[in-house]
Amino acid sequence: MPTPTPSMEDYLERIYKLMEEKGYARVSDIAEALEVHPSSVTKMVQKLDKKEYLVYEKYRGLVLTAKGKKVGKRLVYRHELLEDFLHLIGVDETFIYNDVEGIEHHLSWEAIDRIGDVVQYFQEKEERVQTLKEIQRKNES
Question: Function of this protein (predicted)?
Fold first, then answer.
């Protein structure tokens, strides 16, 4: 099965999040969230419909298919995991969102799984996080 393009992934991730938060995702909501024109959203939604990630009916809205939900959920997981990882390693909060947006499409799922292992390792024991922070303080001085 062909994988979605990075642009498709951005839309699927946002649509999934909107549906989880609001129960629906309108073209205007998606456009606002992604800071694009509604006409761009409509074109992408039509592409996603053809690829069977969602069902779109003009003037009626859209619904994610099982395939779209599965991909959307995984994309949200990837985004949140990368945010957790960058936070864990001490990246300044003001950079995290843009950094995640910059790297999330360039990592393999193998790399994402290994990052998940690292995050889990540190989250299991707070003293591990403290040791990492001590190392970072020493390296900064």
Answer: Central regulator of manganese homeostasis.
Q: For residue range 26-63, list pLDDT tens digits in order.
A: 999 999 999 999 999 999 999 999 999 999 988 778 99
* Calculated CA dihedral for residues 25, 31, 34, 35, nearest 10 degrees: -160
Q: What is the pTM of this model?
A: 0.89
Domain boundary among 71, 93, 111: 71
Please say which residue of 47, 71, 95 terminates a domain.
71
Binding residues, as ranges, are 10, 13, 79, 101, 104-105
Number of domains comprising the chain: 2
In terms of C-beta density within 10 A (0-12 exposed, 13-18 middle, 19 or more buried), how is residue 76 classed? middle
Give SS3 for 96.
Answer: helix
**Binding-site residues for Mn(2+):** 10, 13, 79, 101, 104-105
108 and 83 in a single domain? The answer is yes
